[in-house]
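Hi everyone,

Forwarding the result from last night's run.
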Amino acid sequence: MRINVDMTRPVTVHAGRIDWVPSPAKGVDRKMLYREGEEVARATSIVRYAPGSAFPAHAHTGGEEILVLDGTFQDEHGDYPAGCYFRNPPGTSHSPAAAAGCTIFVRLWQYRDGDRVQIVRQPGEGAALPLREGVTASRSLFDDGAERVLLEDWQAGAAVTLANPRGVELLVLSGALSTEGVTLTAQSWHRRPAGQPLRATAGPEGVQLWIRDAPLQHPDVLRMPG
């Protein structure tokens, strides 16, 4: 399966407008934003757990990155409410579930070789970053020099530019923004190659974004099996 695999062009997916696709686990559905592979895949997805559903125990051979969008995601290590962000590097494992249901944003098999940092950021955690014009809050979730992940709130109506020297990927968490004549609302996902600045205007209620500043695919990304 190959979905949005061309990293040389900008891509936008309005996840709120596409259908859920069943996963192999009962009660767990997904919306595929980017995918290269079958059940073992390099992928970016929005995944929904119905109340009481669970996914079988598994190891993260290629690493896993998650942002909880709503509800509470759970595993044997604890509970992760909406707004929680965590990274499970290659070699970790867990048994995910959601007693009351949840929705998460997930990136799989996109770790670079040697990245073994495991972190959990509970809602509100992360270092505050300097604010640019039009940005009312900016918080670092992860930054190791090669990759930076942050949450930002943009003021209503603000015109903001992301210079984008390395590549940028973003997910709208709430509110809306407009760029190049297209309006992105909650769960809209956008990916943009390096060297193409993103010029956007926040909607009338502002916008909250998850932003990843890094190469769209690391040159030393972990190799997939086979």
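The chain has a mean pLDDT of 95.

Cheers,
N.
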